[in-house]
Design the sequence.
């Protein structure tokens, strides 16, 4: 096979190469002081004049026809606003990729906790009693709860065949390889649902008037998604719907699609009651009724030559999409594109399908399909290594992608790929080899068995394939009251949007960080810079702001006598002159794809992502053979995310993602009974506490990306991709037993490890 | 609506307050609805997440678990009472600079737990910090920068004492 | 917040006498509430059935720790924080001090009371295993006087106990004659902090020349209520500790416990871990 030609490593030609004053420095969070003083305004902190409260009556069965709805006589219904599907003025569905999900169930329900009826009343204490007085009678239909049941296609619950979406990705000729392979290794890997567990539940306030239309304030990620849904549901013109993001207490993807539903509900009640209506879920409702991460099953069949070089990968990805399509197709796409891992393989076939079931729709969650796919491949690599008697690190090194190589979609790695360097750094920082040697000795006598595990992976930055082209984002700045205002629909929910974009603007213009403010995230004020998802904000939106700022400076230099070098005061003086002459000072930039990017949606071939972030993670794990509990004792994460725009915020993203990934691997289990989440309380859905999260060590290698703002690539999702496989690889190292399913709770470890312990024998004697 | 209820009196952030509320109304709701002190947040309503943490008579409590009657005559400190004359409290400073706050929803409770920890133990070990904050769930940070913030504030306050 | 505060009455009698009089006047009508760490959770979930609540918080006669020659008396409304900060408890009742650090968070420990933990009747109660292996007694009080019984006899079924409608828990009395015993307590929860136990096992054993002279074994989350497991005790009492006696004790324990599958764990797991903990206790006692 001809060796790919490695291009010379040409680093950057752009501003990202130059020294920066503000970009790259740990300036404090823009909205930090408000948050620390307790005066940041979250949706539940807001009261509107004459405001009522809303509640949702939800289905109690997983699938069935609504026979009748009865309103009990013990309630004075005159006092209440009552909304059913019949009250919807426009289309009764949420506008996502497919328009299959009703805003309110109409005649049938397809999952437990599906919204059927809405109530509002001035006194929220009255709502519970009233809700209890509404009786919905159903004619049950047979439900489907698992991928396997859905695959049987004996009960069709969605479309013609239960398949929400499928992809076939092919490279080379997989079938020609099996007979000549030295090794063929198969494996099946499963991941469970995961709840975002943002500490602020979903919430929304809506107002309606015939004159102004709808105004919505909400805890949300994507104001224009909500805007789009409301336009269709209320059949209103664009200027009659206004969506304002309030301070948002965590999101992680959980406020990407769901707020479109909640905002519609609150708006319907506002229209019906003639009052502003607040709907803030409590934890039990939020857990039971809102989206989670897609459960998955991934099967690998891999052919290797005698030296451990990958020859063929056949991968079958199946996800559980829940009752409606929501974002399942794009989640599946990302899972598909991350399924082969960061390896070179000449022959690849990936078949993937998202299956419908009668559970609450699964939705966006940090990583968006990648954590599921990466769990499978990175566990599988260790299983292959064991099967062919090779060190798992050597197996990885032998097959890592390098610059010039092509991925499964035949995307050429044009930018530097430094996986070997990341792995080396991770091994050195973690003391990997010395620790493994020590643990091997200690484990013989110690009831606590320790091990080390590694994962290596990429995360594609930005929308998949042609997604960014379709989004066609617009972002800009204006100058008002002596400050530069950043105009974006990109929202802040903890990850640092405000700070990063303000840093970029200040840097690009050449003014101080304090000279830049964020415009309110209000669709009436800001342009559509796209949704705040997919690790795209720094790289894509940041780049738009960088360009808009350079444009403005050029404009002022041309028309407002701004000198080549200037102080903040001189800049704002020039803005004043421009304002006097033109009546406004602003500048906008629209998305332009990096050159030579091609993507074929039909064949799933080409440049899947404009850039990739890369990471190697190492977990040190202890398995207690008395309690069968596995704990992560220490964790190392090394990554290359392009230029780091703010080291404090970037570090915080990695640490937070790792902690969430540890929860995904070892603690967090969504328990469904008859399709309803039964552990829908924080006391029973177990996330890691301050005592459970181990020390996390974070290291960045920086290779600026020429088409991202100041060299930035995506960062937010990457760290959640790797902990689960690294941890389960470490458990295998510790106890010599393979586990292939997460969450891996002590009960699951016991199921395999307990057999070694003679106690059970005695018990049954 | 509330005037039929007997008055319950207590001190919040140094100010004497009196509310008429049903005695089983939660302290959290009284703070947020009656006194418009919305710093304390409700994350779970069951004492698990700690985002409603306040100090009552010098003790850290979950305000979602206190019936207001039991706050009669109590001294209550909320996040709104941390800053002095508009200047950030050393812990708030430390959270700002160390990156201890991300989405900010757990932050008011976390600050109260950290305040309580340092009030009782000005130089906590890492184990003590972890234990002191274990009742305050943060989903954003992975806690590391919160620990850094507490350590930084502890060091800062001992330095300013030494001066 | 699913509960309606207006639907519940709450009064603070202020003194023990007044509280007992209220109970006597309307027997069965009042539900005592102390730190609220259980009942206020039910309230928020809209599941608080009690219409009339009697606040015991702030009644000074119920919040005390008295150190006597042969016992420590702990008032019903003593908080877990009070216990873990108390020097004599730390020194003389280390298992109880340890258990006190396990209840929820610092904020929960500042409110949760010892009697609340017991009266609530959770099979997973954190303080119970320690009290059981210390031979604690529970003192109940009413307008008619007081009575004392072994704490081991307090629970009678799932969420059931011997309290009469007019009675309150007054105090827990823990004897101090375990100083020379080997003491063991381990909780296995869903995580390190803020956890409800899946299994917790406590043991005290007096070991002389490798022979167990006296032993107590108790556990939480292995039956309908926290309990002593006397068959396992009987098996090892008078025996030297070796692999055989440990296996026999495990078999006896597994015979006696009745764990269940629930939202937090499985019966099979609980059995296996209980047996492992018992082994850990006995091995430790042998050394």
Sequence:
């Amino acid at each position: 096979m001809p060796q790919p030609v490695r291009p010379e490593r040409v680093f950057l030609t752009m501003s990202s190469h130059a020294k920066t004053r503000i970009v790259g420095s740990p300036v404090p969070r823009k909205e930090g002081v408000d948050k620390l003083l307790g005066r940041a305004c979250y949706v539940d902190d807001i009261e509107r004049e004459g405001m009522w409260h809303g509640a949702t009556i939800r289905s109690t069965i997983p699938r069935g026809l609504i026979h009748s709805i009865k309103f009990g006589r013990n309630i004075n219904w005159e006092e209440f606003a009552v909304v059913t599907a019949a009250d919807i003025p426009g289309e009764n569905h949420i506008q996502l990729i497919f328009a299959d999900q009703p805003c309110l169930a109409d005649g049938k329900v397809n999952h437990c906790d599906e919204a059927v009826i809405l109530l509002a009343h001035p006194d929220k204490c009255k709502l519970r009693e009233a809700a209890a007085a509404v009786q919905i009678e159903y004619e049950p239909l047979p439900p489907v709860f698992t991928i396997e049941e859905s695959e049987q296609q004996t009960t069709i619950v969605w479309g013609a065949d239960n398949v929400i979406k499928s992809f076939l990705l092919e490279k080379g000729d997989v079938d020609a390889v099996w007979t000549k392979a030295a090794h063929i290794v198969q494996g099946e890997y499963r991941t469970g649902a995961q709840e975002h567990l943002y500490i602020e539940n979903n919430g929304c306030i809506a107002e309606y008037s015939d004159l102004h239309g709808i105004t919505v304030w909400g805890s949300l990620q994507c104001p224009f998604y909500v805007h789009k849904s409301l336009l269709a549901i209320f059949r209103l013109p664009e200027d009659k719907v206004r969506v304002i993001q309030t301070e948002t207490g965590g999101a992680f993807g959980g406020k990407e699609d769901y707020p479109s539903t909640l905002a519609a509900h609150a708006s319907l009640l506002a229209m019906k009651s003639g009052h502003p209506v607040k709907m803030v879920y409590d934890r039990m409702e939020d857990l039971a009724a809102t989206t989670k991460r897609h459960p998955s099953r991934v099967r690998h069949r891999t052919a290797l030559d005698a030296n451990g070089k990958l020859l063929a990968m056949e991968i079958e990805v199946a996800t559980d999409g829940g009752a409606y399509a929501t974002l399942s197709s794009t989640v599946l796409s990302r899972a598909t594109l991350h399924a082969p891992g960061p390896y070179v393989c000449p022959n690849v076939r990936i078949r993937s399908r998202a299956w419908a079931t009668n559970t609450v729709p699964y939705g966006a969650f940090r990583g968006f399909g990648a954590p599921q796919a990466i769990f499978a491949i990175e566990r599988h690599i260790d299983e292959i290594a064991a099967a062919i008697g090779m060190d798992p690190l050597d197996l990885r090194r032998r097959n890592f992608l390098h610059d010039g190589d092509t991925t499964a979609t035949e995307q050429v790695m044009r930018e530097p790929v430094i996986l070997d360097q990341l792995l080396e750094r991770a091994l050195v920082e973690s003391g990997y080899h010395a620790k493994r040697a020590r643990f091997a000795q200690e484990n013989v006598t110690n009831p606590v068995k320790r091990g080390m595990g590694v994962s290596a992976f990429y995360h594609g930055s930005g929308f998949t394939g042609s997604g960014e082209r379709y989004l066609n984002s617009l972002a800009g700045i204006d100058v008002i009251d002596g400050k530069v205002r950043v105009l974006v629909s990109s929202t802040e929910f903890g990850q640092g949007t405000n700070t990063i974009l303000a840093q970029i603007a200040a840097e690009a213009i050449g003014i101080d960080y304090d000279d830049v403010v964020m415009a309110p995230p209000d669709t009436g004020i800001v342009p559509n810079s796209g949704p705040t998802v997919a690790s795209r904000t720094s790289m894509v939106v940041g780049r738009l702001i960088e360009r808009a700022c350079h444009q403005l400076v050029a404009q002022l230099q041309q028309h407002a006598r701004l000198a080549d070098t200037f102080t903040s005061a001189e800049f704002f003086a020039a803005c004043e002159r421009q304002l006097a002459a033109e009546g406004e000072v602003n500048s906008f930039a629209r998305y332009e794809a990096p050159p030579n990017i091609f993507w074929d949606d039909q064949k799933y071939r080409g440049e899947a992502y404009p850039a990739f972030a890369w990471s190697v993670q190492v977990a040190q794990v202890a398995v207690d053979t008395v309690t069968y509990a596995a704990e992560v004792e220490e964790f190392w994460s090394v990554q290359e995310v392009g230029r780091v725009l703010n080291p404090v915020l970037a570090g915080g993203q990695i640490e937070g993602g790792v902690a969430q990934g540890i929860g995904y691997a070892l603690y967090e289990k969504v328990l469904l009974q008859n399709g309803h989440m039964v552990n829908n309380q924080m006391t029973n859905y177990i996330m890691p506490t301050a005592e459970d999260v181990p020390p996390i060590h974070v290291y960045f290698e920086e290779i600026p990306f020429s088409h991202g703002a100041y060299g930035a690539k995506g960062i937010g999702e990457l760290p959640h991709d790797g902990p689960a496989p690294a941890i389960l690889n470490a458990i295998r190292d510790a106890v010599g037993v393979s586990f292939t399913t997460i969450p891996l709770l002590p009960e699951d470890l016991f199921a395999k490890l307990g057999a070694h312990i003679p106690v059970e024998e005695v018990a049954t004697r | 609506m509330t005037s039929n209820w007997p008055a319950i009196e207590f001190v919040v952030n140094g100010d004497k307050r009196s509310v008429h509320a049903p005695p089983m109304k939660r302290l959290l709701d009284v703070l947020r609805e009656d006194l418009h002190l919305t710093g304390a947040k409700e994350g779970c309503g069951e004492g698990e997440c700690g985002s409603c943490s306040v100090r009552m008579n010098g003790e850290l409590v979950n305000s979602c678990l206190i019936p207001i009657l039991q706050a009669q005559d109590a001294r209550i400190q909320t996040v709104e009472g941390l800053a002095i004359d508009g200047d950030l409290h050393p812990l708030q400073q430390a959270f700002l600079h160390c990156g201890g706050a991300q989405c900010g929803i757990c932050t008011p409770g976390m600050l109260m737990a950290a305040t309580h920890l340092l009030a009782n133990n000005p130089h906590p070990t890492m184990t003590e910090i972890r234990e002191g904050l274990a009742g305050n769930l943060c989903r954003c940070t992975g806690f590391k920068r919160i620990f850094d913030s507490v350590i930084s504030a502890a060091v800062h306050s001992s330095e300013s004492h030494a001066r | 917040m699913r509960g309606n505060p207006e639907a519940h009455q709450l009064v603070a009698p202020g003194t023990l006498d007044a509280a007992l009089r209220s109970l006597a006047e309307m027997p069965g009508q009042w539900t005592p509430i102390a730190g609220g760490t259980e009942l206020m959770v039910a309230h928020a979930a809209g599941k608080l059935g009690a219409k009339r609540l009697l606040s015991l918080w702030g009644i000074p006669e119920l919040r005390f720790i008295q150190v006597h020659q042969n016992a420590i008396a702990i008032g019903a409304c003593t908080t877990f924080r009070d216990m873990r900060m108390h020097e004599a408890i730390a020194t003389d009742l280390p298992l109880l001090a340890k258990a006190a650090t396990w209840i929820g968070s610092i904020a929960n420990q500042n409110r949760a009371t010892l009697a609340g933990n017991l009266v609530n009747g959770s099979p997973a109660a954190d303080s119970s295993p320690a009290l059981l292996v210390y031979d604690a007694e529970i003192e109940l009080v009413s307008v008619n006087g007081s009575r004392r019984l072994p704490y081991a006899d307090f629970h009678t079924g799932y969420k059931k106990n011997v309290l009469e409608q007019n009675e309150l828990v007054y105090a827990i009395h823990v004897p101090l004659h375990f100083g020379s015993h080997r003491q063991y307590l381990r909780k296995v929860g869903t995580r390190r902090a803020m956890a409800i136990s899946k299994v917790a096992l406590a043991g005290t054993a007096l070991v002389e020349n490798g022979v167990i002279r006296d032993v107590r074994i108790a556990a939480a989350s292995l039956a309908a209520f926290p309990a002593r497991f006397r068959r396992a005790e009987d098996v090892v009492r008078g025996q030297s500790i070796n692999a055989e006696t440990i296996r026999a004790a495990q078999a006896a324990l597994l015979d006696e416990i009745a764990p269940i599958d629930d939202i937090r764990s499985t019966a099979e797991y609980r059995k296996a871990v209980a047996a492992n903990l018992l082994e850990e206790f006995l091995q430790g006692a042998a050394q």
Notes: The helical segments of chain B are 27-34, 90-98, 107-120, 126-133, 144-162. The longest strand of chain B covers residues 7-12. The mean pLDDT of chain B is 95.
